[in-house]
Amino acid sequence: MKPRTDFVKDKLKHLKSANLYRTLVYNKISGPYITILGKKLVNLSSNDYLGLDSAHHPSQIQSSSRLIAGNDISFEKLEKNLARHKSKNFALVFPTGYMANLGAISILAQKNDLILSDELNHASIIDACKLTRAKKTVYKHNDMSDLEKKLQKKSQRKFVITEGIFSMNGDYARLDEITKLCQKNNAFLLLDDAHGDFVAGRDGKGSADHFRVSKNVDIYISSLSKALGAFGGYIAASKEIIDLAVNTSRPFIYTSALPSFLAELALERFQSNREKNRLELWKKTRYLSDGLRSMGYSIESQSQIIPIIIGDEKKTLEFGKYLRNNGIFAQPIRYPTVNLGSARIRVSVTNWLTDDIIVQSLDVFEKAGRKFGIT
Ligand SMILES: Cc1ncc(COP(=O)(O)O)c(C=O)c1O
């Protein structure tokens, strides 16, 4: 059997032989100049037509695609750190996590391929799948026998895509089982860990590390806008896959780069002493979820995302209104974000919540639970 990634190598070989292969070269822009590989050049590749992006302003934007003049030197360090964080050879930053999803799946899955996607996957994954000409099949949420059955379908290549910690349920994908099924069926695994990254696993390495299966994930997709408190998205994978993304990923190529000050911010947050905050977050999460459970709420979440499933849409809106009237904002989530009839209040825990605020919130939830007949 040919190694799974041979088709990626073949595509790169084809680009090289047709003189269409591109690589990223880091630069620094200053007014009308751009410094590339230590050489200061006049920049005739900028889109800053009105010259409003001052070189002396701390929020310099450098509006251009990364393959043209937008590849600020700050990306190099950030991407090296993110690759190491995910134990992958390379990482590539996208303007948002949404675009990272669009960009990752679409470079790999083609006609005659099969994508298997968890039914609760985020909209950006669903949209990404739509960009490909592959056959898409949805498997029941975290249901391994359904996934196994659907993996039996004949196809050229198979891709499984799942979130790590599900954004609306707060549960972990069963990555210990999913990785085994992928190995057994020669399927690629793409993991969107927007909510597990920097939170779950050792040192916040993410949900695959939580299950100690990191090396069995082919592509990580994540957001810098959640636990890292910055902005942007990224993918981490082998050199070949990142090379292919640089060359063929339309949501990477045909858009302006993430502003360099945001890449710098992400790097700064990444290098901060996050571990203390991470452990604190898990403590607060336990405090809030145990508190809710002790009142009779049925809480199945395993993470900082704690949904209170109410079901009925109208009742959920009223529940949300009651919370607001009592000083709490927790967003009611309804169809199409979740299935009809599974409306919920999505509570997310952050380190901003002091013990006093958690006690105050629990008090409101206790009264709400009784008023709405939920507890
Ligand atoms: C699971 C998941 N993936 C991707 C994204 C998109 O991330 P970003 O906000 O960086 O575009 C989100 C954001 O809500 C998400 O929940």
Automatic annotation (TrEMBL):
Reported cofactor(s): pyridoxal 5'-phosphate
Keyword Transferase set for record: yes
GO molecular function: 8-amino-7-oxononanoate synthase activity; pyridoxal phosphate binding
Enzyme class of the recorded protein, top EC level: transferase
Enzyme Commission identifier(s): 2.3.1.47
Keywords: Acyltransferase, Pyridoxal phosphate, Transferase
Keyword Transferase: yes
Pfam families found in the cross-reference section: Aminotran_1_2
Aminotransferase class I/classII large domain mapped to chain residues: 40-349
Family: Belongs to the class-II pyridoxal-phosphate-dependent aminotransferase family. BioF subfamily.
Protein name, per record: 8-amino-7-oxononanoate synthase
Organism in which the protein naturally occurs: Nitrosotalea devaniterrae
Lineage summary: Archaea, Nitrososphaerota, Nitrososphaeria, Nitrosotaleales, Nitrosotaleaceae
